[in-house]
Design brief:
about 150 residues; elongated
Length: about 150
């Protein structure tokens, strides 16, 4: 039995200018974040920039818990890493923070367009996502290993 095909031209979805901008920001941000991660890793393993915790000490902490590592090394937790940005083992947090923040930035671009077009459900979902991500970044929700 042959399957009949519609003679009508297939419909193609078009991305809005805001969606294209969102995708471009995510793309450029992802590449930038990955480059920063590679550079910071290189600076760490080569010793060009001094780390807070020397690489040769790290294996001694592998079997312990995160709070034991923090206590033994007096390492910062939460956003305390920012004050150690000059140490090679904390430089990688720049790339991680950039990658983590890309969604928020993208949502802040999409939100005005959704509000302008009176797309209530999308506006609500974007606002909710921004709130959850900001609260998680602030350490208010999620808990993590702190």
């Amino acid at each position: 039995m042959a399957v009949e095909r519609s003679k009508a031209a297939p419909q193609t979805a078009q991305a809005s200018p805001e969606q294209i901008l969102y995708a471009n920001i995510i793309n450029v941000g992802m590449i930038t974040g990955m480059v920063l991660l590679v550079i910071s890793f290189f600076l760490y393993v080569t010793g060009i920039v001094q780390p807070y915790v020397p690489p040769e000490q790290i294996p001694s902490f592998w079997t312990g818990k995160a709070h034991e590592f923090l206590a033994a090394t007096h390492a910062p937790h939460g956003w305390g890493w920012f004050s150690y940005i000059g140490k090679s083992d904390y430089m990688n947090f720049i790339g991680i923070a950039l990658l983590a923040g890309l969604s928020i930035l993208g949502y802040l671009i999409l939100l005005p367009a959704y509000i302008r077009r009176k797309e209530g459900i999308y506006s609500f979902l974007v606002i909710a996502e921004i709130v959850v991500l900001v609260l998680a970044a602030a350490g208010i929700v999620g808990g993590g290993g702190h």
